[in-house]
Amino acid sequence: QVQLQESGPGLVKPSQTLSLTCTVSGGSIRTFRYYWSWFRQPPGKGLEWMGAIAYSGATYYSPSLKSRTSISRDTSKNQFTLQLSSVTPEDTAVYYCARGQRTDEYEYRGQGTQVTVSS
């Protein structure tokens, strides 16, 4: 069974870039058909899809976050990474990495990591 684990700083200052890594075990991120996504859930709000990287390496982004978001991967480490630039306190959320068969859906996800944007 695939397992995903998010890692990265829990506190980021406004205007800086948030960077999170998802380490995958139990399956390769190059396996055909799967999409590896980032979601987030701000306090008191619903789950928001941010973007995904496909088994092929193609990337897909939410239109509302596209200008600030970059997703990449390191196949040698079986990891994929989220970068969100120019963060504000509104980017405070629990961030999840996930695997699905569509860009904006998931079958498995990590336990999540809290990121707070504050000076």
Task: Walk me through the topology.
Elements lengths: L2 E5 L3 E2 L5 E8 L9 E7 L6 E7 L4 E3 L7 E6 L4 E6 L8 E8 L7 E2 L3 E5 L2
Parallel strand pairs: 2-11
Antiparallel strand pairs: 1-3, 3-8, 4-5, 4-9, 5-6, 7-8, 9-10, 9-11
The number of distinct β-strands equals: 11
**Main sheet?**
7 strands, mixed
**Gyration radius from CA atoms, angstroms:** 13 Å
Q: Distance between termini?
A: 39 Å
What is the share of helical residues? under 10%
Query: Which consecutive residue ranges, at least 5 long each, have pLDDT under 50?
Result: none
- Number of helices, counting only DSSP H or I runs of 4 residues or more: 0
Give the overall shape, derived from the CA principal axes. globular
What proportion strand? over 45%
SS class? mainly beta
How would you spell out the order of helices and strands?
EEEEEEEEEEE
Q: Average pLDDT value?
A: 97
Describe the structure.
This protein has 119 residues and is an all-beta fold. 0% of the residues lie in helices and 50% in strands. 29% of the residues are buried.
Short description:
The protein is mostly beta strands and 119 residues long.
Identify the notable features of this structure and list them briefly.
single chain; 119 residues; seven-stranded mixed sheet; four-stranded antiparallel sheet; 50% strand
